[in-house]
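Z., the sequence and structure:
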Amino acid sequence: METFIGLRVTQFQRLLMIVQERGGNGTLRGLPFLDDPGARDRSVGASSRNYRFSASVQVIVEADSRLVVAAARPLPGTAADAHAWRRSGLAERCDGVTVLGDGAYLKTGLIVPHRKRPGRPLLKGAEEDNAEHRKVRPRVEHVIGWMKNYKILRECRQRGDGLHHAVQAVARMHNLALAA
């Protein structure tokens, strides 16, 4: 049986024991992040074309272990990925580390796939680079997809730092679920 956070019952019980050992008060009634159920903070998210509320959160995932290494503060979903990456502060934390990104992260210092130019094929080395990129990227995208399955992120109505704390909590729960 799966609990509301995507953990099995035994994993959730271990999580509660750890929280209590560290001085937490265990379970709470209601949603601790919820301020006003109908309110949305426009500094954190923006309405998208389909009338949904969206936010852009930059997440670093270690591809081999699938662990979430870092998650930045959210920006409105209308922010371009490259802009969100520059504002996130994660670039400084990743100094000297190879970080892959998709084509939206051009000129950010991340390794992105090579693009074909009109009428010219990719060079052999560029094709090989893209093949390696295609092997790693799905692992990271799956982790991001798993994180989006948590209801608190899908139906997010937090104000202020609420979304940031929710993303941090989901990342920790995801890591805990992988470690169990």
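Residues 28-39 have pLDDT under 50 and may be disordered. The longest strand covers residues 67-71.

Let me know what you think.
H.
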